[in-house]
Structures are given as structure tokens and as C-alpha cells.
Amino acid sequence: MPRLKYASVVRVLVILGLFCLWVQIMLSASNGGIYRDGDINLEPELAISYTANNEKNINSNKEELMNANETSEQVLALVPPELHKYLTVHPKNISANSTEKAGPKNVTEIRKLIERYNDAQIIHNEDIFGPVQNDTIIIAVQVHTRLTYLRHLIVSLAQARDIDRTLIIFSHDYYDEEINNLVKSIDFTKVMQIFYPYSIQVHPHEFPGMDPNDCPRDAKFEQAIKLKCNNALHPDLHGHYREAKYTQTKHHWWWKANRIFNQLQCTAGHTGMVVFLEEDHYVAEDFIHMLHLLRATADKSCPQCEILSLGTYLKTYQYHVNGDKRKKQLTLSYIQQVKAANEERRRRQQETQTWNFQVYPNIYSATQKVEITPWHSSMHNMGFAFNRTVWNYIMELQDQFCAYDDYNWDYSLLHLSQNRPGREKFKVILCKGPRVFHIGECGFHHKKSNCNASTVISKVQKLLQNAKSYMYPSRVTATITAGGTKHNKKLVKGNGGWGDIRDQELCANMTRIGRQNRKYVYFT
To answer: What is the pLDDT of residue 361?
Structure first.
């Protein structure tokens, strides 16, 4: 009997030992794939910020983790070696939340740094490329946290002809040292960074972030009244309450545009074009050349065209395959080629279920086509440009922009366009062969399980490589269209998300701050 008891005890101890060893191995293996508290090293104040931004940061981290190891050879092969430095991902930023790990440790410190940057109005490389002139093209890039895409946008900008004559203003709504260092490493033109000061990051538990006493998005009005939550009296037109992660984008765009036109010292007398890009755009090398051509064509053929557009969201582009007209008879007819391209696109979508570019003939060529049509937000908001005159038109109706119950800045502009007293809707002149592409298939508004940044980027690179001999056209021909039903459909109401009176007041107050003197602040 004692022997049996002893054997049972030994068995139990062995089993417990094996179980402990297994647990230890599993914990060790999971350390590389789980965000531990020790890895993030958050101070209490920043921990609140992390919680408030958890969803967007997880999306950003997924994108970084998916693509950090695969700025693929396919992509790199089409990037000049001297520009690979902008695509370098350091190993320390792969395994953890890079947006939270580096840089300042609390919200107070981030606020101070943002204030110092905005006061200083530093223009990097101004000593190399000269001061900003009144007709300098300004490229305004709205930046969130999508570092992979931003790297490729910078690479595309670096390859653009005459980029050294521009000023690129990166407008951030998230302070991150890795992003800042990437932007400050740009050496091919003048660069400025501005920081949206009312971001969720620096207001993690108060408006404009999410106040703990704000009403839940889907709370019913009667329920919100009983809860006595902050914004109970101000649901949107669909009966929902505000979500900070959505309202921030419209606030940021409005603040950025006002900052550039009305507040910076270097733009006090600026009369040139401001091109609006986002971190997940990609530009063709002749986009500045095309901008000048569009401007010249508008001045000659369409003085009422206030907006220029270089991009499109279409996934099919017309491309001049054969420049010799005499050989057209030897190829399929245009209609047959279009049908063949459509059929190929459908076949590939069925096979791979992945996003793809298709090219059609006869648009990229020596004489390229542009279109003059009413401006529509969802079709002409990418790579679009306007000057101070147009901004002044917008400012005349700023109250409508800020009061319109739509969390989208572009639909709010469309509302202004359709309600300009005594004036027609904004007209746009746009490239039929686009020079700005959207590569951001992963992230905020895109929840694809199979999205891969490198795949999309390589497709854009190849398309532009194929079109290279047709870049820099000497002239364009303009076609005037009335626009389709979608262009001319009157906005009856917005998309909501903007019913909170606090959002409307913050928006209106942004334009009441005048131009600020440049302060010389020396950073250590």
C-alpha cells in the first residue's frame, strides 16, 4: 500500500512538472506575437490614450505587421536604390506597437511638442532649395498612422520631376517619432510638419476625444436623456451620437486647409495651387507637369473651373498601347479591346478575389484627354487642387460647412458647392489618365482580410512603368460634360455623424485664429 501511494505521488509530480514546462514554453512562444504591458511601457495618462485609440491602432499594427517584412523584392526592383532608405523598416518596430512604443511617454509632453512644432513653423531644406514663393506649389499630405503607405507615397514624390520646387506640408493627427523621423529625413525638397492640436491622441478622455460621459453611439434619445450624458440633446440626423474617430477626419482636414491658407507665415501672400493628398496615395512622376497643363487649359478653356483633379478611384484606366495609328487596323477594335479587358478583369476577380488594375487603350498618349465637369466629392477628391481664390469662396460659406450633418469633409464641400448663392457648382478639370492613385486597400475604411499593401503598390508601379513613354504630354484636349445623374443629384441630407453641437462649434472656431508669427524654437 505505501508503495502504491508513493507511486501515485510521483506520477502527480511528474504530470505537474510537465504541465508547468508546457505552460512556460507556450508563454515564451507567444511573447513575440502578443502586445505585453511591458512591451508598450505606457504611463497612466498615455494608457488612457491607448485604450481610446485601440481599434485604429490595431488596424495600423496589422498593416505594419503584414507588410514590414515584405516591401517585396517586386516592389523594391522598381524603386531606385537611393530611395530604398525611405522604405527601411527597423527590426525594433516590427514586433510591437510602433505608434505607442517610441517617443514621448505622456499626453502632456506630446501636447507641448505639438505646440512647439506649430509655433516654430520650421521649413526643412529651405537653405538648399530656397524660400517659398507666392506661386510655389504646396502639397498638403494628411497623415494618420499608416506608416507603410506613407513610405511609398514619399518614394513616389521623390521621383516626381520638379518636386524640388515645391513645399510639402505633412499634417499629422497623431504624434509618432518614427513617422516624424521619416518625414524629417526627406532631402529632395522643402518640407514642413504641422500637427492637428485637437486630436484624440492628446484628448483621450475628453472632447474632442471620447469623454466617459458621452452618449453611446446607438443610445436612443429617451435613454440618453435618462443617462444625462453630455450630448444627449444632439444626436445626428439618423439618431446616432458622435464617434470621435470619425469626426476627427473632417476636423483635421478643415484645420489643415485653414492653417495653410490663413495661419502660416510662409503662405501669407501665396496665390499658387495647393494639392491635397493623403498618406495612402501614390503619384506619377509627371503629376506636377500635368498640374501645370491642367491649370493652363483651365485658364484658356474654362475660367470657371475652380478645382483641378489628378486622381480617380476607378480601377480601370485607358492606356495608349500602340502609338502608330497605321497599325490600329492590325489590332482588335477599341470596343473589342474594352470587352476583352472587362472579361479578363472579371476572370481574375473570380480566380483571386483580389483588387487589380486594368488598362484600356488611347488615353495616355502624346495628346491626352481631360474632362471638364461638375465637381463631385466621391469622384474628384483625390489629388485635387485649388488656390486661395477658391478657399475664399469656401470661407464665405464656412458656417454651412461646419453645421452640415456629415462627418465627411468632401461631402461637406459638395454641400457648399451645391448651395453657393448666385454661383454655379464647382467645376473640375481632371485627367482621364490619372496621375494620383489610391493604394490604401488596408485600414480605416477597408476591412479586407486578404489586403496586402505590396501587391497593390507593385501593380501601380508596373502600370506607371508601362505608361512611362506616354508621360509628359505636350498638350491636352478638353471635353466638356454635364456629368451624370450622380454628379448632379442634389444632396438632400448628409451622412450624419456630425450632429453634436460641440463638433460644429470646434469647427467654426478653427477659422477664427489668425495668422501666427513664426517663432524660432531650437529642438534638442
So the answer is: 46
Residue 168's H or E segment, with its range, is strand 167-172
Where exactly are the structural domains of the chain?
45-283+400-425+480-510
Residue whose cell numbers read 492590325: 330
pTM of the predicted structure, to 2 decimals:
0.78
Which residues, in sequence order, are CB contacts of 360 under 8 Å at separation 6+?
316, 317, 318, 319, 337, 338, 341
In the block, cell 464617434 appears at 243
pLDDT at 130: 97
Residues forming beta bridges with residue 272, ordered by sequence position? none
Per-residue pLDDT band at 492 (split at 50, 70, 90): confident
First to last CA, the chain: 77
Phi-psi region of 483 (alpha: psi -120 to 50; beta: other; left: phi over 0): left
Which of these, 413, 364, 433, lies nearest to 250 by C-alpha position? 413
- Give the helix ranges, DSSP H, for 323-376: 334-352
Cell of 138: 504646396
Least confident span in 45-49, 111-115, 185-189, 476-480: 45-49
> Please, which residues have CB within 8 angstroms of residue 327's CB and are 6 or more apart in sequence?
none
The mean-pLDDT minimum among 11-25, 98-112, 325-339, 371-385 falls in 325-339
Find cell 478643415 and name the residue.
254
